[in-house]
Amino acid sequence: MGKYNFDEIIPRKGTGCIKYDAPDRCPDNMQLWIADMDFKTPDFVLDALRARLDHPVLGYPSTPASYTETISGWLRQLHGIDVPAELIRFIPGIVRGFAFALDALCKPGDQVIIQPPVYHPFKIVPEAKGYEVVFNPLTPIYDAEGHLTRYKMDLEHLESIISPRTKALILSNPHNPCGIAWTREELAALAQLTSRHGIIVLSDEIHCEMLLDGRKHIPYAFSCPEAAQNSITFMAPSKTFNIAGIVSSYCFCLSEELRDKFYAYLEASEIDYPPIFSVIACQAAYQHGTEWRAQMLEYVQGNVDFVDSWLKANLPEVHCVRPEASFLIWLDCRALGLNQKDLVSLFEDKACLSLNDGAMFGPGGEGFMRLNIGCPRSMLQEALERLSHAVNG
After folding, report:
1. What is the 3-state secondary structure (H, E, C) of 70-126?
2. Which residue in 175, 222, 235, 252 has the most C-beta neighbors within 10 A?
3. How much is the pTM?
4. At what angle do helices 94-105 and 256-268 cross, to 10 degrees?
């Protein structure tokens, strides 16, 4: 297998990627925002794509049985769960997936619960489609020194906001942007509450292959019997193997009642028909990616440790909320004493760093910035030095 090189800096400007070529971003800034990584997409994925491109005809593809069988085997290997291949469906992106699920299972005017601060399309998409979004804000947890360490779900408040129009809850598991790997107990408690009220849980688990510090991902649907019967789960290899440009998401549903409705909706519009390169990239990643994934996670863990220790030693006003999963760090900048506009300006204009504005993730995001650490460590060191200079002069 050999040692993969995650220290290599790969120029990406001019490749048509949002991260580096978006017109609303300062091109001279370091781009540490949108959640794709600056690591090279692994060769075994690129080689599989090149091999297919060696054939001169790109006609309508036939989806092989090995596609869903490969996903089923990966889920068994990685998470220890048994999802029969026939229950797995391709989805053209997870955001589109939960949008389709809402349309298939709910009606405009229904209420959808989200738990901010959370991935912003959870609010934008349902509202644009005519659903009412209701907030159940996460509760912050602090250590003895007053540092934010984690969040928990406020189930008492959740139950208080449920009405007869409440039909769905969109779950981020692991949670983006806060990096929370929800425990089995937390997920089961949520499942029991939502099940009592007939609420469908749409579980976005796109970061589930990237747990840190030896943690194990708990898929919501497998947290307890109630969860299996009131949920649709969405996953993808795209974050893990850095193939976000190839739409490779999929879903599974263990409830026959929900599955019949949702899958009929997908089939009616051929939404679950995967493009040729989605199948090839997903199979290559899951068939050959075990060692690459392990080395990538080890490097990302090292990046977490580096950012955490560097900030403590050099810029303690900015606190690293250590993620339990993924390559995104929730930076607590409240000790700087800046309003959100000035905080964003500090990063964007003074430090020349493009991060995600914490306020975009909803209530509770003010005073925070989201940092993408899926990049060579030398880039992170430069970014932190720029930030320190901007703060301290």
Report:
1. HHHHHHHHHHCCCCCHHHEEEECCHHHHHHHHHHHHCCCCCEEEECCCCCCHHHHHH
2. 235
3. 0.97
4. 110
